[in-house]
Backbone:
């Protein structure tokens, strides 16, 4: 059975603010138990989380063995102050602070480092991200500091030039990767970067009534085209749905993601990529 390579146990696929507010006075274990029960019932035994700033993912790491689930977590994500990432993590203003956060992840039992280096897709307009990506030089430094600490790096990263910069700096996986292009895909393949394209958060918007379907379909189409090209180039594609995001419920999100990706690669490809992730995204396993 394939696992989930990009989920957020803290979110419920319905209402982000409500889901998060449950934990404002401390982590509510029941939320984690309910989530893991659902995965266990579906026979899913592998989850890689994207982290959060409320300690939910950290607690989930402790609970996961009760459910026979291998659960990998970055504890929280790390972002540059003033940029996108507050909802999932902690901010840094300079590289010393960044380094301190990397060490904190390690000391808290984190399996890998998650960095936020770009904005989000603006679902209301094709071709638009909510903000500019982090400068390539800083991305490079963030990745090398994490690697020197023996930690693999997962990057929340949209936009071709930011993806290309992260790939050239040796990032281990790129998450989302909206608005890619040939040059970015080549850089990813050349550097052995795993891509978790998380089609579901945009593909599942159709019919939701919140955004214009014509726009979200166009975004999805371009994304699928890029994933197809990446597969042709020999790139490794990971099955991760961004479960917890709006209209991407836990477990069901995985089924929609499989539907999208199976149009491009077969199950054995996804199994192989999961194997690579299981090996690489464990503290100390980075080369
Ligand atoms: Zn995510």
Residues:
């Amino acid at each position: 059975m394939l696992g989930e390579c990009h989920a957020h146990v803290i979110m419920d696929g319905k209402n982000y603010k409500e889901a998060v507010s449950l934990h404002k006075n401390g982590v509510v274990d029941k939320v984690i138990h309910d989530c893991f029960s659902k995965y266990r019932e579906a026979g899913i035994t592998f989850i890689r989380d994207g982290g959060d700033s409320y300690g939910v993912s950290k607690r989930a790491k402790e609970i996961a063995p009760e459910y026979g689930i291998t659960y990998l977590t970055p504890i929280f994500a790390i972002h540059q102050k003033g940029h996108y990432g507050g909802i999932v993590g902690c901010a840094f203003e300079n590289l010393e602070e960044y380094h301190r956060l990397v060490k904190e992840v390690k000391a808290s039992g984190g399996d890998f480092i998650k960095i936020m280096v770009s904005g989000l897709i603006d679902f209301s307009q094709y071709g638009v991200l909510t903000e500019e990506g982090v400068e390539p030089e800083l991305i490079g430094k963030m990745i090398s500091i994490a690697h020197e600490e023996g930690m693999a790096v997962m990057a929340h990263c949209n936009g071709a030039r930011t993806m290309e910069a992260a790939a050239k700096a040796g990032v281990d996986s790129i998450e989302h990767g909206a608005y890619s292009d040939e040059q970015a895909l080549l850089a990813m393949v050349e550097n052995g970067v795993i891509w978790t394209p998380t089609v579901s958060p945009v593909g599942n918007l159709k019919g939701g009534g919140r955004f214009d379907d014509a726009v979200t379909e166009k975004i999805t189409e371009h994304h699928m085209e890029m994933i197809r090209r990446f597969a042709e180039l020999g790139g490794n594609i990971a099955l991760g749905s961004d479960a917890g995001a709006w209209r991407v419920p836990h477990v069901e999100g995985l089924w929609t993601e499989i539907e999208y990706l199976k149009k491009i690669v077969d199950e054995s490809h996804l199994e192989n990529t999961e194997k690579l992730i299981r090996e690489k995204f464990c503290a100390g396993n980075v080369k």
